[in-house]
Design a protein that fits this description.
- Helix content is about 45%, strand content about 5%.
- The protein folds into 3 domains: about 45 residues, no CATH class; about 60 residues, no CATH class; about 30 residues, no CATH class.
- By secondary structure, it is mostly helical.
- It is globular, with a radius of gyration of 21 Å.
Length: about 140
């Protein structure tokens, strides 16, 4: 009965997209492992360095390469920026990577995360955290009272 309703809805609204929500365990056991059909959109974390998320999302055989991207030009750019020690040269490689990715459009990005934070002036050594690691930030702060 359920599949009949989906077919009927797709006939009436061909642009309709069905979302499937998984528990964390089911998501990790299937989607993160690359076991899915169609498109997928999943959680990702912020990063302080462009290498981590970029490499994991665009290099073949990486767990977070949910688009099954296999682009030799892209892979070469990402591997080269990993080997480059000169900061300015690495920035240029990252910029080239970003331009190339924008042209190819392997993923459709839906959001751009933004963070704001405020704290009392006596709280020292603290800054907003873009990751899910809340404990280490709190462990590093101190109060100047």
């Amino acid at each position: 009965m359920r599949s009949f309703h989906k077919r009927r809805l797709h006939f009436i609204f061909p642009w309709l997209i069905f979302f499937v929500l998984y528990s964390d365990g089911a998501y990790t056991a299937t989607t993160v492992q690359g076991k899915y059909e169609g498109m997928v959109y999943g959680p990702s974390t912020g990063a302080r360095d462009p290498d981590g998320p970029s490499y994991r999302m665009y290099v073949p055989d990486q767990a977070l390469n949910r688009g099954y991207v296999n682009d030799p030009t892209l892979t070469a750019l990402l591997k080269e920026q990993r080997r480059t020690k000169d900061l300015e040269a690495r920035k240029q490689l990252i910029a080239a990577f970003q331009r190339y990715v924008a042209e190819q459009q392997y993923y459709v990005y839906t959001i751009s995360a933004m963070m704001t934070g405020s704290w009392q002036p006596y709280v020292k050594n603290y800054a907003p955290n873009q990751t899910f690691d809340y404990g280490s930030r709190v462990a590093a702060l101190w109060l100047n009272r």
